[in-house]
Write a structure and sequence with these properties.
Shape: globular
Order of helices and strands: HEEEHHEEEEEEE
Strand content: 15-25%
Number of helices: 3
Largest sheet: 4 strands, mixed
Structural class: alpha+beta
Strand order of the largest sheet: 1-2-3-10
């Protein structure tokens, strides 16, 4: 559904509203009207300087832009989902490609550590060694909140992970262009052989 609104002259606000509405139609419920489907969207022009602060209704996207989208959705019954990818209106630059490759590599290093007995903090550190970022890289939720203990960077993140725990994993990496960060976000299940990805959305930059 993401690419449906990613056409020139559509505003960031309209894209976010479309994605949230689509999530509701597919059964997104959760625990409150403001927390049913949280959409993080950040866009940057293919050339020129990006505004430091996006103001409502945001900027109108155009050919050549890169748009990073992350959807966090709570479903009725306590289910939780996360999906995030960069979308490019046209071919992305080499800098954007490198940043995404670094994000994907860091995600894979974290996923290798997602086995019973390891800790969320230790797994996150495996990715942070490859991609320096201040943003959280691993999140746990049962659908009651966007992030619940164990939480990265806290003492609860030192508790051993249990088999079957579901974690959202993504590592934002700066592109070096217009202040934009890109990341590959997916859900993974903790298994004895490491994290198992849930879902089959392509782990690539989406060109639209």
């Amino acid at each position: 559904l993401f690419p449906a609104m990613l056409v020139p002259d559509h505003y960031e606000r309209d894209i976010v509203n479309f994605i949230r509405h689509s999530a509701y139609i597919q059964g997104c419920g959760g625990f409150g009207v403001f927390y049913n489907a949280l959409v993080d969207l950040e866009s940057a022009p293919g050339n020129g300087r990006r505004d430091a602060v996006n103001t409502y209704p945001g900027r109108a996207i155009n050919e050549g832009d890169v748009v990073q989208i992350k959807l966090q959705a709570n479903l009725l019954g306590g289910y939780y989902g996360v999906l995030g990818r960069p979308f490019s209106l046209g071919q992305p630059s080499d800098a954007v490609k490198r940043a995404f490759d670094d994000s994907l590599h860091a995600q894979k290093e974290i996923v290798k550590k997602l086995f019973p007995g390891t800790t969320l903090n230790a797994a996150a550190m495996a990715g942070r060694k490859l991609a320096v970022t201040a943003a959280p890289c691993v999140a746990y939720s049962t659908g009651a909140a966007w992030a619940e203990p164990p939480a990265e960077g806290t003492s609860s993140g030192d508790f051993p992970l249990q088999e079957g725990a579901i974690l959202a994993v993504g590592v934002p990496v700066p592109t070096g262009e217009n202040g934009l960060e890109v990341a590959c976000w997916d859900l993974f299940s903790v298994t004895p052989s490491g994290g198992m990805r849930i879902g089959g959305f392509p782990q690539t930059i989406q060109c639209v």
